[in-house]
Design brief:
With 257 residues, this protein is an alpha/beta fold. It has helices spanning 18-29, 41-52, 70-84, 107-135, 155-174, 195-202, 204-214, 223-234; strands spanning 9-13, 33-38, 60-64, 89-92, 138-142, 180-186, 245-248.
């Protein structure tokens, strides 16, 4: 299937690893030009060298900033326009499910989680919405099944991801018909060196039982499987899709309406 993204410009936040990097790589394979944004400059340098073994360096750009800083992101948008032209699609992918087990985390922890999991997406939308309106472009927000139903994830993380879904649904109406806005809600995704990798090493039997009991497909998801869903929603091939929440979770929430 031709996704019709050749030479279109996409911005992917949280792009130095995991779902973000897989999405950036998948878009590049489809012929898009991609801006990878992340805080970790060293990790961005590593993935830049990795991408450069396959793709011409003129096809992608890496920018190390904190997407919660609106001034920095606005400045980055100017750099992107100067080097690549107008942005067609934005993937807001930043998130961190690491937190505490407290039913109601202390305010400092709550604010940290909220800033990471919601405010970065809010700032990203605020900066790029006017640009996408002019281009009749598309937003994809990466939430989580933890934002759909209580599945044992930290309260602060789950609440922020639920708010992100509500935010995206509102934007899908208020930016229509010129901008499409959709959400991908991943389940348990295995990333080497990530949270599930750490838990698996500490207690493989417990993790195996969790997958067997909760996930009909009985395995973790791969970041590339999430990237494929994101890429379709980003593309003109999904032109009649907006306001959707697309679960990619191996069936974990199949019984949740």
């Amino acid at each position: 299937m031709d996704l019709e993204v050749t030479d279109r410009v996409f911005v992917v936040t949280g792009a130095s690893k995991g779902i973000g990097f897989a999405t950036a790589e998948a878009l590049l394979k489809e012929g898009a030009r991609v801006v990878l944004i992340a805080r970790d400059a060293n990790q961005l340098d590593i993935v830049s060298k990795q991408l450069n073994t396959t793709f011409d360096r003129s096809r992608f750009l890496t920018i190390s900033i904190d997407c919660g800083d609106e001034t920095s992101l606005r400045n980055a948008s100017l750099v992107i326009e100067q080097k690549f032209g107008q942005v067609f699609g934005v993937v807001a992918n930043i998130g961190d499910g690491q937190s505490v087990k407290d039913p109601i985390p202390e305010m400092d922890q709550w604010n940290t989680s909220w800033r990471t999991n919601f405010d970065t997406a809010l700032v990203t939308a605020r900066v790029f919405a006017p640009i996408l309106l002019a281009q009749e472009g598309t937003f994809v927000f990466v939430s989580s099944i933890a934002g759909i139903e209580s599945i044992g994830a930290p309260t602060d993380y789950s609440t922020a991801k639920a708010a992100l879904i509500a935010f995206a649904k509102n934007l899908s109406v208020k930016l229509a018909p010129n901008v499409r806005v959709n959400v991908v809600a991943p389940g348990n995704i295995f990333v080497p060196g990530g949270a599930w990798d750490s838990r698996l090493q500490k207690d493989p039997e417990s993790i195996s039982n969790m997958l067997r009991l909760n996930v009909p497909l009985n395995r973790f998801g791969d970041p590339r499987e999430i990237a494929d869903a994101i890429m379709f929603l980003c593309s003109p091939r999904s032109a009649f899709t907006t306001g959707s929440v697309f679960r990619v979770d191996g069936g974990q929430t199949v019984s949740i309406q």
